[in-house]
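[Solved] Which block belongs to which protein?

Original post:
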Amino acid sequence: MSQSSSPPPTAVQRVPVGRTMRAAYAAVFGSLGLLLKAAALPFLLSLAIIGLSLTAAANPLPSFILVLAGFVPYTLFGVAWHRLTLLGPTEGAPVAFPSWRRRHWRFLGYVAIMTGVIYSLSAPFAIAVAKFSGNGTQGLALILLLLVVAVIVALPYLTMRVSFVFPAAAVDEEYTLRNAWAHTHGQGFRLLATLIATALPMLAVIWFVNTLLGALLLPDIVANTQDVGMSPQNALRQAVADHAVAFSLAQLALAALNYIVMALMVSAVSIAFRQCTGWVPAPPPTQGRLGEENGEGS
């Protein structure tokens, strides 16, 4: 499969978990300069959204709007990093301030569809658990627990089954959700295992940073809550204000680490997409013409 041919009816090979994970780390940590360039604008947008979210935490409507706005930096970065992984550092080289194109609308549309599906499937279970937990019989509690576990497993699996639409959209491939479903048949859990294995090392680093931040703020939060009588929300705000520099640096570090995790996930999905579909970029027009002139065409 290439940019000039149709997708195959089924996957051409299975996802190799270990090899895909290693390739994702090589793609990210071997291109840190390009990572900085691809993440420049999305990172600044993310910081702005984080700052606005802190001020709008008590207001549902602005908070909801900011959640939706968070899809924009993810789309900009996702498209750029999928293209770099699949097209290489020449044709797929990211720019610091990319223009918004049709591929971004397609990518954002798939993000919106998946978010809507996940919310639609998870919300009824969350409401049921909140309503019946602690009020029902032991048998009902067990049923609810099993349903929660099923949802926790099913939603990531569903996401993996359609994940190939994202790299395809980023490289302007004519590729549908049906194609993605066919190419990931029997491989949903392999893809899920690949992404979990890829994310775990960096998630451990993020957990460590969060732990340090909590150790810094927790004593002041407890003191403000118990001694001064503040509400937990006001106690947190006061603790953040008292440690503004440390808190800001920690937030910057966490945001940067989140982009590294995102790059690893995007690379893993792109590499799996390439492996399962046999996708290769179409040759440049000049190369194609030279090949025809030299009798290299099929």
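(Second protein starts here: sequence line, then its structure tokens.)
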Amino acid sequence: MKYNFNFSNMPDFVLIKTGEFAVVEDFYKLLKDLLASPKWVKGAPQIIDHQSLDLRKMTFEDVKMIQSIVEFHSAKLGGGKCAFVIQSKNKSLAAELTNPSEKNSSALIKFFSDLSTAKKWVLT
């Protein structure tokens, strides 16, 4: 499991880049480590850059589990937006995850296939 936190854009957002990552299992640890960081600011948006991962094997149940992990930590996260950036070859997954008919319980979580669009969203 690899991930690193880039706090250089705080308080606008924290950029989290992942690699060699078991999505569901490691995401829980990632959030725990983020919240434990002395540089973390409650309510700051997060951009989680998963572009180095191949998510084609990710199931809808995995997505629901990640959403529940974010919701479990929501009080400590402070209501900031959370943008997931995934590879463009996973665009169909991103479209499915952001489909209005399948909206998750939090409008603060969205999936993108490019970093610049994710940044624009968290900054608005």
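Accepted answer:
You had them paired correctly. Confirming on the second one: Residues 99-105 have pLDDT under 50 and may be disordered.
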